[in-house]
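User: Sequence in, structure out. Go.
Assistant: Echoing your sequence, followed by the structure tokens.
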Amino acid sequence: MVCRSALYTGQLVAHLVLKSSEDELKRVRNILTGSSDRAIHLYNPLKASAAVPKSGLVQTYSAHGYEVLDLAVTDDNARFASVGGDKQVFLWDVATARTLKRWSGHFGRVNCVGFGGAGDSVVVSGSFDATVRLWDCKSQSTKPIQVLEESKDSVSSLHVVGHEMVTGSVDGRMRLYDLRMGMVYVDLVGQPITSVQQSRDGNAVLVSTLDSTIRLMDKGNGQMLQSYKGHTNQDYRIRSCLGLADAVVVSGSEDGQIYAWDLLGGTVTEKLKAHEGKVASAVAFNTARKEWASAGVDGTVSVWGMP
């Protein structure tokens, strides 16, 4: 893998989303970042340079009073949700940079957010207050339509696919919710969880934990299918993700490097130096391209691709 472009934000980047437009002729790709400067930035990496702060900047979204901790974008790229230290959930219009909704109700910082429901009509948020809340984008009500209180500690990550949602918590448990049936299934991982992601076939969940281990868990019986080691993750919330049609696992590391593993074999296939040896906390794969992005506390975002 090679670094194709880099951009400098000047702030610790907590989360990023790498998206492409649906126009196959133009295939414009953009990066959405949330960071410690309390703002959300939309970049075009083709016009960015690591030597020039905020070059390639397309739009800035300002409303948060504290750091931005997570972002989620709708399938049509028209809206996105953001959460952070101000205990609120924001729904944005991408084109106008205006907030469409602001929901309050969490009693601690909000760590993670995602979309669910038909047409991405529901926003789901997980918080330090150990709850998951569901918000109706179409309703005028500012109250959640459902509150899930099964977690015993901070909810650090969530991933919604269809009527199913997986959450990861600092209590060391992965929870699978069947929202249509009103059921919850709990699997004990045993270590504080930093990120979760369901596989494309819906049969497995990728789980990152604070013991410097990433696990591929069978969603049906909770058994570990494979583990991935070599990186360092003991103190910070570091994300991992699946890419290349779920053929590889990619994660940041506290040593500033980016690691890639073969999904089935569990062996390290790439170890890339990035972010000046500082914590690389976020990674995101572009499903439309063989590209992915990494970000960290050095304030830079790097876009990587196959040579």
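User: And one key feature?
Assistant: The chain has a mean pLDDT of 88.
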